Amino acid sequence: MKIIIAPDSFKESLTALQVADAIAAGMREVWPDATYVKVPVADGGEGTVQAMIDALGGRRVDVRATGPLGQVVDAFYGDAGGVAVIEMAAASGLEGVPPDLRDPRTATSRGTGELIRAALDAGARRVVLGVGGSATNDGGAGMLQALGVRLLDADGRDLGPGGAELARLDRIDASGLDVRVRETEFHIACDVDNPLVGPRGASAVFGPQKGATPDMVQELDAALAHFADVIRRDLGQDVAHLPGAGAGGGIAAAMVVFLQGRLRPGIEIVTEAVGLDAQVRDADLVVTGEGRIDGQTVNGKTPMGVAKVARRHGKPVVAIGGSLARDADAVYTEGIEVVVAAVARPCSVAEALGAADENLRRAARNLAAALALGARLRQ
Fold first, then answer.
1. Which residues does UniProt assign to the signal peptide (predicted)?
2. Are strands 83-87 and 72-80 parallel, antiparallel or unpaired?
């Protein structure tokens, strides 16, 4: 029997590979002779770099980069089988900004551009960028500046950092854009369809969680609308209402225009890169999971991406969640046949995180035993 184990990480406790190891250990207690193939995956958000490294035998590359406040931060990207995997949050993330300092009017995505440049320096010609968790709302302006694009005001001076500065944009000079960009394939892991501007745009929907007040939201939305107008005038592309362009504080729009990037669901990019389809083709069972399974899981999260691959080959899928929400049943209509929780008793979050490995092993053992019993009863 061949069992594919393809989970996401359990945030704040286990990497995707550690989750797969624990599940395999538990199931092996019931099926000691089965073949277990561990394929750690992610949906383009936090943990994507580590999952791709673990699945493809790559390495983490540490880079000193510009943080969202202009400070120097320790960032990284993954070199996974010749593919550069970048999490925007590694250099331009919200988590590292104290709540009282969060201000998307001045936060910059320059560090993300520096990570891209470092990957190009290392020879990468295929780049995957996950845009979740950013502190920025600058339409990717900082990233573009790091890659050689000049954003100029009416006096011919370069704009400063932050989304608010885009209101002063007079013209775009892309002649200095790093020439290696034209030789590189860019994929943007994007699981939202929000446009760049408007009531569902980057500023209105994501700005408040980055520290924007209602007045700031209006200011930032107007600045991004002006940015889109100048892009349309100077470059002939209309990205203001492009679905997904608002992801990452609008960095997705800049990547589409200047880097010819493709917007794709993150889990689709990752499962394709790690070769999940080929592994599932001759499997008997597919096991997936994530830290919390709920109604949002069906919206492009890892278990759904894995289930989609398994459905193509008619393979049964079961899932283990660190916890299950009341609306977790939503996944049953999407191809997952059994869902179980790793936490078996009431406990604090700290206790659940501390015992994640043992909880997963036990849940996987019990799940395998139940499946084995069901098989015997059918005989």
1. none
2. antiparallel
Q: In whole angstroms, what is the distance from residue 363 CA to residue 379 CA?
A: 25
- Please, is 370 exposed, middle or buried when counting C-beta atoms within 10 Å of its C-beta (0-12, 13-18, 19+)? middle
- 50-105 confidence digits (pLDDT tens): 888 988 889 999 999 999 999 999 999 999 888 999 999 999 999 889 999 999 99
Q: What angle do CA 86, 88, 89 make, to 5 degrees?
A: 115
| 47 closest CA partner among 97, 103, 7 | 7
> How would you classify the pairing of strands 171-173 and 150-152?
antiparallel
pTM of the complete model beyond 0.70: yes
Q: What 8-state DSSP symbol labels residue 161?
A: S
- Mind listing the pLDDT tens digit for each residue in 101-158? 999 999 999 999 999 999 999 999 999 999 989 999 999 999 999 999 999 999 999 9
pLDDT at 216: 97
Pick the CATH number of 2-41+275-378 from 3.40.50.300, 3.40.50.12780, 3.40.50.10350, 3.60.20.10: 3.40.50.10350
Lookup: tokens for 281: 């083709």
Q: DSSP character for 134?
A: B
- Name residue 340's beta-bridge partners: 320
Question: E strands along the chain, which residues?
Answer: 2-5, 35-38, 59-66, 72-80, 83-87, 126-130, 150-152, 171-173, 185-189, 262-264, 285-293, 317-324, 338-341
